[in-house]
Design a protein that fits this description.
The chain has 136 residues and is α+β, with helices and mostly antiparallel strands. It is built from three helices and seven strands. Strands 4-5-6-7 form a four-stranded antiparallel sheet.
């Protein structure tokens, strides 16, 4: 079953403007992708942009990262390729899961921001609004 989640690295404290952690994508095919020690917010923003663009891109890429996720769309599913691993996810479920995880990250970053809305929380809120429009 498709799932997307993250684990923030809290060992040195969480910087709400540059949250570091791992991002996980679990596919319907039982395979998973793990992006380790990465900018969690950047990956979720790029996944959001991928959805907002209608999935027309053939990769999800974060500039600060050496590896991208290559994407093939067919039969209402996305095939994601990352470091030799192939993960297959339903396109509708992917949109739903990205909405949920962006919302969760907004909540988590707000907890670490001492009551101030950081730049990334503002950007993520804007992405979430666009994503919710795509779900309808």
């Amino acid at each position: 079953m498709t799932d997307i989640f993250y684990a923030l690295d809290v060992s040195g404290g969480v910087d709400p403007d540059d949250p570091i952690g791992n991002v996980y994508i679990v596919g319907d095919n039982g395979k998973s992708i793990t992006i380790e020690s990465t900018y969690v917010d950047a990956w979720l923003m790029e996944m959001s942009d991928f959805i907002i663009s209608g999935g027309r891109q053939n990769r999800i890429e974060v500039l600060e990262e050496p590896e991208a996720i290559d994407v093939i769309y067919k039969d209402e599913k996305f095939d994601f390729f990352y470091k030799g691993e192939k993960v297959v996810v339903s396109s509708k479920v992917f949109v739903q899961k990205v909405c949920e995880i962006v919302e969760k990250l907004i909540f988590d970053l707000s907890r670490f921001s001492d009551g101030k809305e950081g730049k990334n929380v503002s950007l993520l809120k804007g992405k979430l609004l666009e994503l919710q429009g795509k779900r309808k």
